[in-house]
Amino acid sequence: MSSLATRTLYSPSGRWLYNDAEQRAARYTPFDVDALQEIACKSVDARHCTAFTKIAEGSYNKIFLLEFDNASRAVARIPSSIVGNTHLSTCSEVATMQFVRDELESRYAPKVLAWNSSSSNPVASPFIIMEYLPNPPLQSCWYHIKGAQTGHAMSDICWLQHSFTLRKFSQIGSLYFKEDVSPELQDRPLYLSDEDNQRPSAEKYRIGPIVDREWWRGERRNIQADRGPWPDMASYITAAARFAQECLSLGIDTNSSFARSSHEDVPEIHRLLEKCIAIAPHLAPPDSSLLSPLLAHPDMSASNMLIESPEKPSVKCFLDWQGAIVAPAFMQTSIPALLAYTDGVFELDSEGCVPPLPEDIDQRPTDEQEYLRLHHKLLSRYRFYLAQLPQLVPLHAAAWRYPHQEITSDLPLYVLRCWADGPLKLRDALMKISDPDSSAVPCAIDFSPAEREAHDEELRARVRYQGMVEKLVEYVGCDGQGWVEEERFEEARRAVEGVARQWDDAVGPFPFRDGSWSFFLN
User: Fold this and answer.
1) How many CB atoms within 10 Å of residue 176?
2) Under the phi-then-psi rule, with left for phi > 0, alpha for psi from -120 to 50, and beta for the rest, what region is 389?
3) Does the CA dihedral 476-482-486-492 come out positive or negative?
4) Statement: the pTM of the whole predicted model exceeds 0.90
5) Distance between CA 151 and CA 312 in Å, rounded?
6) Which GO molecular-function terms appear in the entry (predicted)?
7) CATH of 134-173+209-348+376-447, one of 3.40.50, 3.90.1200, 2.40.50, 2.40.310
8) Taking burial as the number of CB atoms within 10 A of a residue's CB, which of 223, 240, 357, 412 is the most buried?
């Protein structure tokens, strides 16, 4: 393989309309292609690899299809450094997939053929080699199927969510094979109940440090800190706040132009983190069943679900278990991305029902008809999911009845990104949680009327700004980080330059300038 072809495998596809060099460097992932092929050949009893093709990539991985001389095929995943701790992430991802196959159902996760979490192995990078599944993703037909076809997919999604509730763990963290955690953690039980700890899996697996990248990104990976496992929700949230304080004290990212915060924000961020620590012991819901640590899939999007066929879209396998964590049931009940409806074209009425289509729908232009019918269908699916879940996964329904469940579940994220994304989201969460008019949480913290008024004004300004950014993204045809396909780069760059000349800086800074905020670069 030529050096140019090899570099193409290492490098990310596409371009970024701002911070391009930094984004590409963060995703550049060198590895020994020949060594990976040799290991893959052994895993499928082949002599030679006849084809090696990059078939997909995201910010965290590159995915390759390997074909062999014995007609076998396999898939290889190479993680990028954006993951944070690629060693622990790989260990946990493999253990999680095997646990799902052992304890839930074998079809729920792909079979791992070979793996190594070290960067000093012959491949010179962590890797996972898995079975190849030729099934199409649900994404290929999700917007077109209807009726019973939709029901096939939704029932499989709900069944996976229900399956997660059957195994309650002893701690909060991430799953590992027993031999991959410290001796001290090996001595701790896997499950919460004595009965479950008699299962074979109780000897095979353990809970170890959390692999969520927010605890490991950038220079954070070098900090010695409490990354779990933790015994309860209060310990988890408190540890996140203490970790954020430590990063701030050490100056991690405080000079980065890619962050939204400035040095003037430091005192407020410290105050917010102290408020978070103060309120942490009061956030647990009174229903003890919602506190048991459960596993959940980290990214239930349609692209991560392989189906039998577009005609019968029952889910045959769930992909991408990287970054999975074990957390309180209360915090593991998010609506799958493909079923959540937040576009606002239609909204549920006051009784939670889907409104009818406009009476003149048939008289509208064809493209508008298709647009409205699609959004009406997506809202109807969301409503059906909400209606069915109390029977299919009652634990989720119980969690949703608790005030501010979603905000509380996202609190660790807001804490760990309070410098990168600015204090607004963390402040907003704490204000809502502690609002005496709408919260069940004892008021361990408070904000003055003046603080709340100033926050509301800042929040309205951010919403206006975000709306402008979303219009820019739609107009240019890129993703939220400014990524476009290579062949569209020059066209999109010219479009960005045109918008930049007309941008109203009173709304906020133009987002697509080098050095601007970026989710992945801070």
Assistant:
1) 23
2) alpha
3) positive
4) yes
5) 10
6) kinase activity
7) 3.90.1200
8) 240
